[in-house]
Amino acid sequence: MSLEDPVVITCAISGALANRDQCPAIPYTPEEYAAEARRIVDEGGVHIHIHARKPDGTPSYEAEDFTAIHDAIRAEVGDAAILNFSTGTIGVSVEKRIEYLKACPPEVAALNMGSMNYAKYSARRKDFVFSTVFANPFDEIIALLKAMKELGIKPEHECFDLGHVGSLTPLIDMGVLEAPLHADFVMGVVGGVPPTARNLAAMADNLPEGVAAHWGVIGISRVQWTLLAAALSLGGSIRVGLEDNLYLPDGTMANSNGELIAKARQMTQDAGRRPATVEEARALLGLKARVSA
């Protein structure tokens, strides 16, 4: 990748952790997801990462909820966005995750590339707000990769640490993973790689040699904005959205995903780069062009 490449601007539309007590703009119903998708597309976002929820806001891993959200977004924005389903969970079986991928295959599905401690720390409390083990063993990764390959879904490799990037190489050698790769480096989670520009460059430098790859950054919490600036200067793509960070750079809470996308687009242009069109994004991620019905 180079500075000449257009920037794929991704939005993580809702996540599964935050709720409306923390941010009133988080969508719950399929109709609210569709309205947010319209705001995202109108501001230049071309790739939407989806965690499903039930209409009361409860996180869901049911096929009918993913399908309802997917269909509502498609009805609103058509093919103007790439839709991406999360497969990242704690305590949900691989079979359950494959079930919703089969029921409504998205163009892309996020795949976590390794196990880790996953925590949030409070310096004020001198304690962890939460702390758990996020298990993603190789047998589960391979099972999900095989299912995605069978369904024609492009995996998005979410790498929370440098070792997760290294895990791509044996999977390519095994033949369960094929180029071009689409990797995102998740930074800012306690237990994962510290969120610095130097570490971001190291993650990009450790992608498998000689293999075509597109990469971007996912910055968690308010460090997101400095990581976006780093990725833009290194030739990478970027992600924002209410899953990752609720606040604009000036510290005010975002009123919509569209506000976050608008700021990401402005940063892209201020860095002398150009936001990708959805057609360019599909080409960069190695996706087939969609043909509208």
Describe it for me?
The chain is α/β, with parallel strands linked by helices. The protein is built from ten helices and ten strands. The chain has helices at residues 30-42, 63-77, 94-103, 138-151, 162-166, 168-174, 197-205, 224-234, 257-270, 278-284, and strands at residues 9-12, 47-50, 82-86, 108-112, 116-122, 127-134, 154-159, 181-187, 213-219, 237-240. The strands form two sheets. It has an eight-stranded parallel β-barrel, surrounded by five helices. Helix 1 (30-42) links the parallel strand 1 (9-12) and strand 2. The longest helix is centred in the N-terminal third of the chain and has 15 residues, at 63-77.
List the keywords.
single chain; 293 residues; alpha/beta; eight-stranded parallel beta barrel; two-stranded antiparallel ribbon; 10 helices; 10 strands; 36% helix; 19% strand
- Number of separate strands: 10
Task: Sum up the overall morphology in one term.
Answer: globular
Numbering strands along the chain, what is their spatial order in the largest sheet? 1-2-3-4-7-8-9-10
Cα-atom Rg, whole angstroms?
17 Å
**Percent in strands:** 15-25%
Outline the low-pLDDT stretches: none
Structural category is alpha/beta
| Order of SSEs | EHEHEHEEEHEHHEHEHEHH
Separate helix tally: 10
Short description:
By secondary structure, the chain is α/β, with parallel strands linked by helices. It contains 10 helices and 10 strands. The strands form 2 sheets. An 8-stranded parallel beta barrel has the order 1-2-3-4-7-8-9-10, surrounded by 5 helices. It has a two-stranded antiparallel sheet with strand order 5-6.
